[in-house]
């Protein structure tokens, strides 16, 4: 599976963090969650951390699995 890419984050003045994916807002974190995210992003690979925090880490075969005849209703 390819590494996640296209994520950016910006910390606002009020302490909240906005995570975007290819220019579109993917998540807004506030308070303790924002602080935990920032600490984790500093310690590890920020792209993987942002993908995990936004839930945008399962990419690959979902579309082909959904279109398989066995999975159609």
SSE inventory with pairings:
Layout: E1 7-11, E2 17-21, E3 24-29, H1 31-43, H2 46-54, H3 62-66
Antiparallel strand pairs: 1-2, 2-3
Helix pairs in contact: 1-2
Seen as an oligomer or otherwise, the chain set is single chain
Q: Rg from C-alpha positions?
A: 15 Å
Compute the average pLDDT: 84
Distance between the termini: 28 Å
Percent in strands: 15-25%
Q: Percent range for helical residues?
A: 25-40%
Give helix and strand order, one letter per element, not per position.
EEEHHH
| Shape type | elongated
Low-confidence stretches: none
User: How is the biggest beta sheet arranged?
Assistant: 3 strands, antiparallel
The helix count comes to: 3
What is the spatial order of strands in the main beta sheet?
1-2-3
SS-based class: alpha+beta
Q: Could you give the count of β-strands?
A: 3
Describe the structure.
With about 70 residues, the chain is of the alpha+beta class. It is about 35% helix and about 20% strand. It contains three helices and three strands. It has a three-stranded antiparallel sheet with strand order 1-2-3. Strand 1 and strand 2 form a beta hairpin. Helix 1 runs antiparallel to helix 2. The longest helix has 13 residues. The relative contact order is 0.20.
């Amino acid at each position: 599976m390819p590494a996640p890419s296209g994520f950016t984050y910006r910390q606002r003045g009020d302490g909240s963090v906005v995570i975007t994916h290819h220019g579109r807002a993917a998540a807004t974190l506030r308070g303790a969650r924002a602080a935990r995210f920032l600490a984790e992003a500093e310690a590890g690979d920020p792209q993987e951390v942002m993908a995990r925090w936004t839930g945008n880490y399962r990419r690959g075969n979902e579309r082909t699995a959904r279109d398989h005849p066995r999975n159609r209703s």
